[in-house]
Amino acid sequence: MSATQHLLSAGLLWASMTCVAYAQAPVPASAVVSVVEGPPFSLIRGVTIYTAIRGVVLVPGDLIESSQGNLLILELRTGAATSAVVAIGPATRAYWMNQPGGVTLAVLEGWVKVDTASVTPAAEIRTQGTRLGAASSAGTYVFHAGDLGDEVFHERGAMTLWLPSAGGWVSAPSSPSQYAARTQGTALRTHVGPDPAFLRAMPSAFRDPLPLGMSAKLHAAVEPQALREVSYEDVAQWLAAPLEWRRGFTRRFRPRVKDPAFFHALDVHMSAHPEWKRILHPPSQSLIAPR
């Protein structure tokens, strides 16, 4: 049995255990942006693009996009209590998936660091790329989604690896100081200690513990500033993301179909998101068979 097969077999047992733990963990309903280094970051909420700064409150469904000079610290909240701390690095595009049962950050590109070891009780935070994912409710890890593959460094505490399979995702165990990487169509690669290239590219702030309690210094929540409604180019990569990520996007972005430019771009790139065909070109009533 190969190392990958061994991980997947062990992962089946871990999957049943983590599913129970995931359901019982507190589920954050919001996140306060307690630190913003660099310029304001971009936030897509509904069909509107906002510019956001320190003090903005994020919620499920938000698309978060940092610039090359950004570093964001999020304190995820369950009620009034902090249940996880998450850092979003420069040039990162993440989606707080609007799903019941837990927090999943889908990452198109960039860097995310998760700390669930410094707070009690902690929520389980799952970070998912297109080729690899990780989850923890009592540990710290760094996740990177790159052009060539996804990488995870299990820093400390407990963490579970997640791997795509024919039936969805399966979990596999991980140990502190373990590095895992996977490119499209290749087997999982793991070893002790991160690759030198991973360390060189990792944001320098990720080498230190994430600051906790910074939101206590905020006087009040800050409202993000609306810029405009999204164009097709703003969300094209999300509309073509894995099907699991884009569920609900037809309902969410359907109001933008009224914009001729958005309609045309959707139509031209229909192969990337075929679920839009019935919306842009509904079948004629005369072609619908009566019941």
Write up what this structure looks like:
This protein has 291 residues and is an alpha+beta fold. The protein has 2 domains: 3-217, Jelly Rolls, CATH 2.60.120; 231-287, no CATH class. 20% of the residues lie in helices and 38% in strands. The protein has a 16-stranded mixed sheet that branches. Strand 10 (125-128) and strand 11 (133-145) form a beta hairpin. The longest helix is centred in the first third of the chain and has 22 residues, at 3-24.
List low-confidence stretches: 1-23
Number of domains: 2
Q: Within the CATH hierarchy, at the fold level, what is the topology of the largest domain?
A: Jelly Rolls
Strand percentage lies at 35-45%
Q: Work out the number of β strands.
A: 16
Q: What is the string of helix and strand elements?
A: HEEEEEEEEEEEEEEEHEHHHHH
Largest sheet: 16 strands, mixed
Oligomer: single chain
Structural class: alpha+beta
The chain-level mean pLDDT equals 89
**The CATH C-level class name of the largest domain:** Mainly Beta
